[in-house]
Amino acid sequence: MVFRCQRDSWARQFTTRVVSCRAAELRPEGGGEPVHGFQVVLEDTILFPEGGGQPDDRGLIGDVPVLRVTRRGAEAVHFVPAALEPGAEVQLSLDWERRFDHMQQHSGQHLISAIAEQMFGFKTTSWELGRQRGVIELDTPVVTAEQVQALEESVNEKIRDRVPVTVRELAADDPEVETVRSRGLPDDHAGPVRVVDIKGIDSNLCCGTHVSNLSDLQVIKLLGVEKGKKNKTNLVFLVGNRVLKSIEQSHSTEKALTSLLKNGPGEHVEAVKRLQSSVKLLQKNNLNLLRDIAVLIARDFKSKPAPKQLFVLHRKEGDSEFMNIIANEIGTEETLLFLTVGDEKEAGLFLLAGPVEAVENLGPRWQLRASPRPKRMPRFRRRLAKGVVSMWTHSGLLHHFCAFSSVQSRSTPNVHSSR
Fold first, then answer.
1. Is 61 a member of any domain?
2. Is the pTM of this model over 0.70?
3. H/E element holding 225?
4. Of the N and C termini of the chain, which has fewer Cβ atoms inside 10 Å?
5. What cofactor is needed (predicted)?
6. CB contact burial 357-394 (16+ within 10 A = b; e otherwise)
7. 109 close to 250: Cβ distance less than 8 angstroms
């Protein structure tokens, strides 16, 4: 069946009748709990059911929102949250912004695919109309930057030529069907087939909604290519209003960078490169200082006359190397070390190291994974989830650790806490 949305892609309002309504569930695209509602079939519809690579439409039946439209044989099935009376006359309203976006992207894909094949022999094997961008899979392992530029110039020239786009219906057994470019029909297809003609450029079997003239596309921007499946290349594109939105977003970003970097757009790249170099140098210096601090902390601990059975430390700044340096400097043959690093509001790390018997006893109780250290003292390490580090700061670090691990010591352990 060919629906009203396919015969008139520009219709935004339509009156029809409810044929059937039955309870059903809708599985959200992103997962989660199913939505309870109803599947409604109408005599005809201006809401496109997903197909041919084009997502489904949104809109209203009366004042009831349509959450999904799918095709079931010759029927378009509308999923709604409220029941509708079979036989009742209803008014359909289309979400035009969503529909027109899909029309621009879909017709743009037809044009790009046709010109890519004419110019370079690149056949389209599939395509995807995403929420942010479109992707055409081309049957070629390589597309050069020069080819992308030439293709972009050619398709935009066709837009400026105001080439008409028309839709024809053919019987499924019409011999002409075999001469039209197609990737095949669904197994449950019923009724006539639709041929979308871009005058003098392309004829293609398609169930989607399309513009009536290439000038409706406004402009096409090819964003470049990405590696696809084996021997395939993905061509990324934007059409029409998506190009305008992309320019607006880029302009807003450019203005923000101009304000932050205190220079013009032409100098942004060099300014960022200088900042990156400065950050790398600071990170290197910071790492060297942390290493020096780790050595000093360990030497300070070793220089004290008090018994050295247990060493506990928390420091906001630090990483796994910082903890390892302390453990190596102090030595783990006689001393049990429990070290943590990280900000109270962020994820952190801890390290448990020491005598074999103590670590092998405490590690599993803390559900830790031992690091492979053949012929060396065992060590257990683990990431701390965001917000957990605060539990280990200050005096709570020692008391919680000792209470859980049942560590017994006749003398007061050495505890270091640094924020």
1. yes
2. yes
3. strand 220-227
4. C
5. Zn(2+)
6. ebbeebbeeeebeeeeeeeeebbbbeebeeebbeebbe
7. no
